[in-house]
Amino acid sequence: MDFSEYQPKKLVWQRPEHLLQPEHLAVVLSAARRSENRFFSQAFAHLDPSSDLRVTQVQHEPLQGGVSGAHLEQVRVQYEASSARHPPAVMAFSLILKRVPPRASWLMRASGDTLCREVQLWCSDVLDDLPPALLTPALAASYDVQTGEGALLMADIGRWLGRFEDCFLPVSPGQQMLTLDHLARLHAHYWNDVRLSNMFLGLASPHRALLLLSPESIAVQRATGDTHPYLAAAQSGWEAFFKHALPEPARRIQRVLNAPDRFLASAAAMPATLVHGDVWPPNMGLWPGERGTRGQREGNKTLLIDWALAAAGPASYDLFWLLFYWRKVDTRRALLTYRQRLTKHLARRGIRLSAAEWSMLVDLGVVRTVLTCGETMGQAIILATNDASRARAIALLHQWTSWADRVIARRGWDQ
To answer: What's the angle, vertex CA 149, arms to CA 144 and CA 151, rounded to 5?
Structure first.
């Protein structure tokens, strides 16, 4: 790819270290203040509009967490605001720096990410155009065209994000409705959006979006000498998956894994939208509504972080990924809710979602979820701490694989 034509829409620094330099952080914070960035509205609310910002101290330390191979750091920033009318005010807050070096991230390699797509999405105008119901916390980015190394500087929104434990807890009807509505807004907004064909976004290809966590992909990563612990766990998960799946579903699923062309052709025939790629509780949060200038409180917004697996593809990829991890949610009822909301938001754009399209979206979502989350289903069996939890894990595997088996047989995707 010829990067002589690479023209990001925003100011991008070359190295992650540049983002941590006080003078550059002052530029980032001033821009956030001018744009009335909602993540810093309280920090800047009491400042004189004419005051200047000067970063006086920057400290950063590694953060634990994540399985992708990206490197997270917590950045503590102290700054001083001064103006002719007021004495200097010293304040501090926390940011997050996410470094995404392609050579160190097995997930980037598995998903075919050579451009730091999460960085490119921010550098373009695509995420700036998110529906108002959704927020993402990126503030600035760096990208080195020569090395392919990128980084994102983000607001620290950890206290609003979900946790792994939330996957196994009930989700209130109100929260379900809000989340599914916001997800439908996202997909309807980018439905057949021509911007998604921009090669410089580096979105995951249809093949990678389907097979990024397949047994073959995991084996390829391990064959390179990558010793990341998640790869070994994923391989064991697939072994448990095929050990405990019923014979006929296992055979059909294996045939699609080996030869996915028919499935991919069906997916390509559907309208494509911006797919986040990793919609589950730890990558999501609820931003509480704020009071506007007239005192009205805005509606709650959905936070979405970690766009590293973003793709242009069927909307149901996101929907079923979330429903797989929402273990205490009635999947059929959630599907009905999402369909109603997606139909409504598409209709506002003059787009009709036909019954045949919806049926295909559901079928694609079910099978893709099994092909990507099968290793997770197997790991749940391995990690079960007692007979009851093991039985539940096996039952969940049978539920999803039997559903996928029926779909594959009906669609002929294993022929």
So the answer is: 95
Angstrom CA distances, 395 to 168, 179, 377, 402, stand at 15, 27, 10, 10
**Per-residue pLDDT band at 293 (split at 50, 70, 90):** very low
CB 315 within 8 A of CB 361: yes
Question: Which of these ranges, 109-118, 176-185, 330-339, has the smallest mean pLDDT?
Answer: 109-118
Residue 207: which H helix or E strand, with range? helix 206-211
The answer to whether 30 touches 53, Cβ cutoff 8 Å, is: yes
Is-contact 281 168, C-beta < 8 A? no
| Cα–Cα distance measured from residue 293 to residue 301, given in angstroms and rounded to the nearest whole number | 18
Residue 297 has pLDDT above 70, yes or no: no
| pTM confidence score | 0.92
Nearest to 358 by CA among 408, 311, 299, 316: 316
Alpha-carbon distance of 210 to 258, in angstroms, equals 12
- State phi, psi for 290 to the nearest 5 degrees: -110, 155
Quote the DSSP letter at residue 297.
B
CA distance 302 to 346: 19
User: What integer is the mean pLDDT of 225-231?
Assistant: 90
- The H or E element containing residue 338 is helix 331-347
Cα–Cα distance list, 367 to 160, 333, 364, 373 (Å): 31, 19, 6, 10
Better pLDDT: 21 or 31: 21
Amino acid residing at 65 = G
Question: Distance of alpha carbon 351 from its chain centroid, rounded?
Answer: 26
Q: From the CB of residue 366, how many other CB atoms can be counted at a distance below 10 Å?
A: 23
Over residues 200-210, the pLDDT tens digits come to 899 999 999 99
Instruction: Check pLDDT > 80 for residue 19.
Output: yes
**Contact 190/196 with Cβ under 8 angstroms?**
yes
Distances (CA, A) of 293 to 261, 297, 298: 54, 9, 11
Give the mean pLDDT of 117-129. Answer: 91
Sign of CA dihedral 243, 249, 251, 255: negative
Closest alpha carbon to 167 in 338, 396, 329: 329
Rg (CA), the chain: 22
- The SS3 call for residue 23 is helix
Measured between alpha carbons, how far is 122 from 147 in angstroms, rounded to an integer?
A: 19
pLDDT of 32-51, one tens digit each?
A: 887 777 787 766 766 666 67
